[in-house]
Design goal:
This protein is mainly α and about 575 residues long. The chain has 24 helices and five strands. The radius of gyration is 23 Å and the shape is globular. The relative contact order is 0.12.
Length: about 575
Amino acid sequence: MTETNPTPVAARPSTPIDAVADGFFDAVVARSPMTATYLGMPGVHDGLDDFSLEGLAEDSRIRRATLAALDGLEPVDDVDRVTLSVLRERLGLAEEIHAAGLEEMSLNVISSPLQDIRAVFDLMPTDTAEDWATIARRMARVPAALAQYLDGLSYAAEQGRVAARRQVVECAEQCRELVADDGYFAQLVAGAKAGDDDLPETVRADLAAAVEAARAAYAEAGERITRDLLDRAPEADAVGVETYQLMSRYFLGSSVDLAETYQWGQEEVARIAAEMQAVAEQILPGSSVKEAIAALDADPAYQLDGSDALRTWMQDKADEAIANLSGTHFDIPGPVRTIEGCIAPTQTGGIYYTGPSEDFSRPGRMWWSVPKGVTEFGTWRELTTVYHEGVPGHHLQVAQTVYRRELLNRYRRMMVWSSGHGEGWALYAERLMGDLGYMDDPGNRMGLLDGQSLRAARVVIDIGVHCGFEAPAEVGGGSWDYDKAWAYLDAHANQGEEMLRFELSRYLGWPGQAPSYKIGERIWMGLRDEVKAREGDDFDIKAFHRRALDIGSIGLDTLRAAVLGTL
């Protein structure tokens, strides 16, 4: 691989605004052992967060104190101006969400404390007996953390704030799956080894006892969610325009015209459908899109057998992208050129990325959570996902930001995250790889377009359902309901019913997040086009990428202003 390290840059002196940002970073890490693990911070990672109402109040106090500390501080340079804008926007929106009572009622199928408490264990090392002893100590704290969280849900319910019935039912089912005889907890104990060696008897006994306690706590959580919330849970999935606008601003870092975006989403679905039909003709002349996809699924040239083959393939493709793009379209620092492809210990079907530690001793990782019983995979469908999660997608975006210690404070490098920026960039990265010729094969092109179609359909369903806009004519118009949402998703996505049913539940329970991918891509593409129009023949796409990524993951309004020099 060609070494194309960017020219070294002198470290930027720290400023009073940096000090406030880093003080907030330190306060969050001190209060959140789970955040410390996600960020790969040094130390013993055997604690869990405080999910009590008092804990949420203390988190709010820290945010408010940080915002107050910014009063009267003047930025000394452009980096400071961005930091000031990011802190005020991110922490201010978090305070609006807290004031609305949305934190203590948080329950959905993908991103609530119910999932977060379990997921932190995926990032813990398992190489030594001491690693497993640390896991055991943290696992022993699961019952208390879940109890705090469940008490918060009960408190919110008493105030009339309860997640929709669909989320309650499906989260209870997730608990039952975790504690099943072939579920996560049983597999964790059965597979516990220190390298090639068995665990010492005392460590295994402690682990087994802690896992059994956590397993019992999750079983009780499922029962308690059903008992305490189900009768109070609203049948309607929609959260309404006011809550949706708040959550959309949080996930985008930008206020968008929801009615215009809803219409644009339908136009994007139609545009992509036409492109898919054209590609279907290349794959199987005279076929429909779904017939062409069936042909791809049956084509041995695109098939992988087994999770090990999937992991090896995605690792090879990620490494290939890094080698080819470094020095051409991107400056990729040495430590960022390492990424690991991993098979997740869960079986939910999700695909996700986790960033490197600050010192890169833990690399960035792509995770495939392979559904139970799935043993065959189609590369035509998954290549675009490798580019989304790896390079030039999340890994380049996140790991390069972590690397920029000479330019950015720790808060900017490691903690701040805007879904519209991050997921929008990842979709921009997928499209860029198509533009660069990596998706010219008709099968791979279909995979890119199929993913785009899913993301465009999300915009329509998510905004339409939650804001009460009229459903498209193709599903009968009128008011949205679950059946119309399913019919629309099934018509415009081809990832299999099990995954798509989960996807739909995700949209209904996590308002504003799913559209941030496609809306974020729209804003990224518009920003690039605007810079290109300004600079004319002097436009350099590698320089644009470097300038934009050096800013870090921030709200999209702040990104646009920072890149255009109007902040």
